[in-house]
Amino acid sequence: MLDSNAPSAALAAPHLDAWFAQPDGSTGEDIESQLLRLGLPRKLVHRKDTLFRPGQSKSALYLVRSGYFKTSLLSEDGREKVTGFRMRGDLLGLDSIGLSHHACEAVALDVGEVIELPHALLSARVPGFQMWLAATMAREIRRDWEWMLATSTLGAEQRVIAFLLDLADRQRALGYSGEQVMLQMTRAEIGNFLALQLETVTRALSHLDVVGLIAVDRREIRILDTGALRAMIAGERGLH
Amino acid sequence: MLDSNAPSAALAAPHLDAWFAQPDGSTGEDIESQLLRLGLPRKLVHRKDTLFRPGQSKSALYLVRSGYFKTSLLSEDGREKVTGFRMRGDLLGLDSIGLSHHACEAVALDVGEVIELPHALLSARVPGFQMWLAATMAREIRRDWEWMLATSTLGAEQRVIAFLLDLADRQRALGYSGEQVMLQMTRAEIGNFLALQLETVTRALSHLDVVGLIAVDRREIRILDTGALRAMIAGERGLH
DNA sequence: CGGATAGTTGAGCCTCGTCAAAAAGCGTGG
DNA sequence: CCACGCTTTTTGACGAGGCTCAACTATCCG
User: Fold this and answer.
1) To 10 degrees, the CA torsion angle through A99, A101, A104, A107?
2) CB of B161 closer than 8 Å to CB of B64
3) pLDDT digit string (tens) for A67-91?
4) Can you name the CATH fold of B154-234?
5) B212 — alpha (psi -120 to 50), left (phi > 0) or beta?
6) 3-state SS of B81-106?
7) What are the sequence ranges of the domains in chain A?
8) What does the buried/exposed string (b/e) look like for A190-209 if buried means 16 or more CB atoms within 10 Å of the residue's CB?
9) What are phi and psi of B6, to 5 degrees?
10) B15-146: CATH topology
């Protein structure tokens, strides 16, 4: 649901445009594997480790190699908003490009590993890095907008469904089953992300379990009827 | 409210990093005025003109020179979400960088003018363009997140206040008064953006008028007590 | 084993959405 | 210039979805 990329033909364009014409993944993996070959500094994290905080001076982006992270925004008066859950292949710190300090917070939800990407260095040394970065940021913007659409037009249960299907899709894209989803985050964090209370998330999960569309076992969710679930967010629009 | 850039010292960094170290505006105006001097193609638009639609093949970004635009996302099943209102200095089409086709829609709310920015050309010819673009995209991401925070933690009236203050701030940044805001969009569009119904927007505006914090005259809003308004979104957190 | 964290479930209430009707603007053409 | 139709806005009444508060259970970790 989350990526509305037109899966169109990659145009045979002059080299500079090569990137912009790419639908999504192909050249991306090129750049990504280039980055991996560069022997950039790696960093191991444990559950609840904070990778960076708002206001902290920023030196690099982080590319997630393994594990799960949440990024969140904090307001002065204590409100918090989880802006996304990140997994392998995602970039952390995109939002603070152009700033000398981080604007959001990134916390590990599990043990994991990230690679530091010093943009200045990479911009100079890796041809196409800038393009890749811009394309990645654009994808982040589209994701954000999709979720804005979801939270403002879908009811509580529909949002939870969209969340589960999104996780499943992303897991599938990484080579996992997609039938089974292990939630690395608390109900409260899911609720925060979806603009719901944790009790509402619980109730939605319980209800979907009762009607047999998913099987909930603690944080392990088995998706039993993808078709029906998809129909529930595409069909009747919005609340009601 | 919307831009949480640290107004910190611009570090004396190696040239490549110059951009990333910039807090926000200074070098940006450099690039922007460079762009203006290039004699890039301009385009005049009328009220309700569509600059681009989802699926339409994309050739360039658009820099707003005058007028007001809304950008919105459309889902297959007809749901719509206004993703932002854009004015002078804003870029249209950022979200579809890396795609060959547009992912969202941009419509003029008034007569206006835009400049076409062909990224391939500019990336090659204007040094620092890529950096500027990345910084601009990052700012868009931060804005989006701020609004996600707002819509998920603030009550209806607070969201409307945040919206008015944001408009006022942006107008002030462009050299206008900031006391007076002319809404170029309908109540329905405001509501869509804020995840509210149009009736709720109307009620919020009416109420704020009654209590004397703003003066509503059709689409002309006069902000009478900025301090009190700011307190209402920073003070008591969220709903209730 | 015991304290803390996380999740579940219930009951009541409140904000905001829904439906409806009317007023006010606004553009258009006679 | 005014009449007409359309869009936009306002206001009211009502109901419901989800939030709040609260109690209880399960789980994790030292």
Assistant:
1) 130
2) no
3) 999 999 999 888 899 999 999 999 9
4) Arc Repressor Mutant, subunit A (1.10.10)
5) left
6) EEEEEECCCCEECHHHCCCCECCCEE
7) 15-146, 154-234
8) bbbbbbbeeebbbebbeebb
9) -70, 120
10) Jelly Rolls (2.60.120)
Structure tokens at B93: 């089409």
Instruction: State whether residue B238 sits within 8 Å of chain A by CB.
Output: yes
Task: List the beta strands (DSSP E) in B138-239.
Answer: 180-182, 214-217, 220-223
| DSSP letter, residue B78 | S
User: Mind listing the pLDDT tens digit for each residue in B72-119?
Assistant: 999 988 889 999 999 999 999 999 999 999 999 999 999 999 999 998
pTM for this predicted structure = 0.89
Quote the CA–CA distance of A36 and A232 in Å, as a whole number. Answer: 40
Distance CA A240, CA B212 (A): 36
Interchain proximity A104–B145, CB inside 8 Å = yes
Smallest CA-to-CA distance from B170 within B195, B202, B193, B143 is with B143
Which residue of chain A comes nearest to B55, CA vs CA? A6
Which chain D nucleotides are covered by protein, judged by CB under 7 A? Answer: 8-13, 16-22, 27-28
